[in-house]
Design a protein that fits this description.
By secondary structure, this protein is mostly helical. It contains 2 helices and no strands.
Length: 54
């Protein structure tokens, strides 16, 4: 669920920054960075020691 929240927040940030006068590409790159970090954290969580099954 945290992945969905981060994607929604990133897209909202993109729209707000674009509305405030930032370039659309710059705003999108910041939103894409947030989404990439969220996906990376989601993928790496299964490798954390607290999540391992042994």
């Amino acid at each position: 669920m945290g992945l969905v929240y981060s994607i929604v927040a990133a897209l909202a940030l993109w729209i707000v920054l674009w509305a405030l006068g930032a370039k659309a590409l710059d705003s999108f790159l910041l939103a894409a960075l947030i989404m990439i970090v969220a996906v990376t954290i989601q993928m790496l969580q299964k490798y954390l020691p607290s999540k391992r099954q042994s």
